C-alpha cells in the first residue's frame, strides 16, 4: 500500500535515517547506553540508580580503553502536558551533582542529537512514513466513538479490549479517497501474524511475548501527528545506536512494542536489562510517603554524592563479597551488570546514613569544610555576610568537631548549635527538662561538688579559658596539623588544652575522683551535657562565637551562651539542688568495701564525694549488698582466636574468628587495634562473652565480646587470660570463694541477654585485684583449671 499524501503527513521524507548498529552485534560494540528521563518531576532515587548503572557501564568501558563508549541523556518529553523545562533542569542538575556527567545529551549535544524527543518530531514522522510505504503500518480512520463501541462489545463478550483491525487490510482506493478528502487518521503498526518477541534480559533472563496474542495493532502517530511514546523510544534507540537499555522493571512490558517496531525497521535490538523496583521498608514501591526520595532532598539533608552513588549501586548489585563501601573509582572498576539481581531492593535509610558517615570520614577536612559551611549558613549558625576570617575559623572548628561523628553534613550544624547552647535548667525543679542520664548524674550527688569547684575556680580566676591569641589550639597539633578525633586535644604544649588537663587532674586529686565521676560532672557543668566531645574544643568554638565581630547568626535566632553566663546559670542551679543530692551516697558503700579490701585503691568508674571517709569493710558485705544480675547468667567461655584481620572500614576494630567450642568459630569484632597488633591476637586464648545479642560493628556482625582489662581512662588495655590448661569452650564461672556453685545458673539465652540490662550492670563489679586476678564482687572468676588473670592489676574488665 502506498499513501500519497495526507493532512498529517505532508512534511514527511521517505528515507529511513541511518541505524548505526545495522549489521553489528550490539553486545560486541563499544557501549552506547542512555538514561531517558521524562521531565515530569525531580530526579528520584530509582531514576538516579538507573542513570548510575548506565554511567558505570560507559565509564567502566572507557577506563578499559574504549574511547567510543558513551553515556547519553535523552529527555523523553513527548508528554507535553506533564513535561516541564524546570523539571528537565532540575533532573540535569541532580545528575551533575551526583557526578553522572553525560557524554551526549542536552547542553553537551553530540553526533546523534537532538537529545530531546520534542525536537525530533520530523524524524518520527519520517520513520512512520517509511513504515507506511513498506506496508508495515497503515492509516486507521476509526473514530473514537467507533473504537469505544468495539471496546464495549469486546468487554461484554469477556475479551480483552484491543483494536479490531478494521483498517488493517482496507481497500487502498478507499484509503486514498479518505486521505484526499482530508479525513483525520492515525498511523497504526501492523503486528505481523504469528510474531513473537523474545529477549535475553541481562537481569531477568529469557522473556518471550506472543505479540499477536498480547497486543492489537497499536498507534504510532496520533491523528494530530504527535508520535506515541513507545514509537519514539524505539526510533531513538535505533537511531542513536543504543547497545544496551538499562531501565526499571516497570518498562518491561514496553519492550514488546519497542521490539516489534525495531524489527520492522530492520534495526538490531539493543540488549535489555530491567532492574527491579526500589521498595520501601513495607515492601511497597518506594514513594514519597516513605520519606525523602528525590536526590535534591538528599543533597539538602547533607548527603554526599559519592555516598549516594555508593548506596544506590548496592540497591540490586554487589561485587560478590560483603563489601559495602566503594569510592567512585572502585565502583567503576567493580561494577558489572551481570551481577545485578532481579529481586526488589529495599531502600534502607540507616544504611545510607552509615555509608554517608564512612565517606565523610574518608574525606579530608579541607574537602568537607565547604559542605559544612553551606549547612552552617543554612541552619542559621553563620551569617554568610559575616567577616570571612570568623566564618573560616568557625567552620573549621565545627568541621573538626564533627568530622568523625557526623553521619550527614547537617550533623555538624546541629552539633555546633548544641555546643553553643547550654541546656542546664534554671532550677532543680525543672530537672525533667534535661536528658535522663543528666538527671541521674545530678541526683546521684556526684555533680554538686565538682560543679561547685568549677564555679569557685572561675571566681578565683583560675578556670582555664581558650587562649585568645590562638583560639584554634585545641584543634591543632603543634606541627599545625588538624585534629579530627573530636576527643583528642591539641599537642600538650599548647596553653589552653594543657592548662585544662592540669586543672582537671588537680581537681581530681583534690576531690579524690577519677574517670567518669570527675569528667561527667565537669562536662555537665561546662557544657550542660554530661558526655560528649572534648571540652576544650567546645569551649574554643564557644569563644569563636563570642568574639567581637564573630560571624555567628544571632539575628537568625542562634542561641549562644557565653562562659560568663553559663557560670551564673550554674551558680543559680547549684543553689536549688536539695541538700540530699549534694553528696554521693549510694555508691559510697560499694567503694568503701572495695577500698577496704584493696587497701585504699579506687574502683574504676566509681568515686565518692570528696571528704567522705570510708570504713574498711569486707568483700562479703559487697556480695551481700549486690543486687544486680548473677555473674553466671553470662555465658563466658574460654576461646581461641583462630583468625584475625583489620576491619576494612575502621582503624579501631579487629575482626576475629574465635573458637568457643562450637562447630563453627564465631565472628567477633573488638576495638583493639589501638592496643594490639594482629600477631598479639592470633592463636591467643581469650575469655569470650558469648550470649550478647549479635550486633554490627562498622557493618561487621559481631557475635560476642572478648573480655579485656583497662585502666580508668582506657589508655591501656590488656587481655583477660584463662589458665594455660583451661579448655577451649569451657564455661567460666563465679562461685563466691572459688568453689563451683552447686546449682550453676543456666546462662541466659542469646538475644535475651541485653548488653544494657545485664552486662553493664555486672561490669562495674568486674575488676582485677592488685595481683591481676579477675574478680567479680571481690571474688575470683574461675575456670576448672584455676582463676582467670590479667597482666593489668587494678583494672576494670569489659
Ligand atoms: N522515560 C522513561 C522514564 O522516565 C524511561 C524509558 C526508558 O528508559 O526506556 O521512566
From TrEMBL:
Please tell me which top-level EC class this enzyme sits in.
ligase
Q: Tell me yes or no: is Hydrolase among this UniProt entry's keywords.
A: no
Q: Which GO terms describe its biological process?
A: glutamyl-tRNA aminoacylation
Superkingdom is Eukaryota
Q: For this UniProt record, give its keywords in alphabetical order, as a comma-separated list.
A: Aminoacyl-tRNA synthetase, ATP-binding, Ligase, Nucleotide-binding, Protein biosynthesis, RNA-binding, tRNA-binding
What the entry lists under InterPro entries is as follows: aa-tRNA-synth_I_codon-bd_sub2 (IPR020751), aa-tRNA-synth_I_CS (IPR001412), aa_tRNA-synth_I_cd-bd_sf (IPR008925), Glu-tRNA-ligase_bac/mito (IPR004527), Glu/Gln-tRNA-synth (IPR000924), Glu/Gln-tRNA-synth_Ib_cat-dom (IPR020058), GluQ/Sye (IPR049940), GluRS_core (IPR033910)
Domain TRNA-binding: start-end pairs: 630-733
Q: Does the keyword Metal-binding apply?
A: no
Q: According to its UniProt record, where is this protein located? A: Mitochondrion
Family to which this protein belongs: Belongs to the class-I aminoacyl-tRNA synthetase family. Glutamate--tRNA ligase type 1 subfamily.
Q: Name one GO cellular component term.
A: mitochondrion
Q: What is this protein called?
A: glutamate--tRNA ligase
Q: Which Pfam families match?
A: tRNA-synt_1c (PF00749), tRNA_bind (PF01588)
EC no. given is: 6.1.1.17
Chain spans, region Disordered: 1-29, 596-616
Q: Where is the composition biased (Polar residues)?
A: 1-11
Q: Which GO terms describe its molecular function?
A: ATP binding; glutamate-tRNA ligase activity; tRNA binding; zinc ion binding
Organism in which the protein naturally occurs: Triparma laevis f. longispina
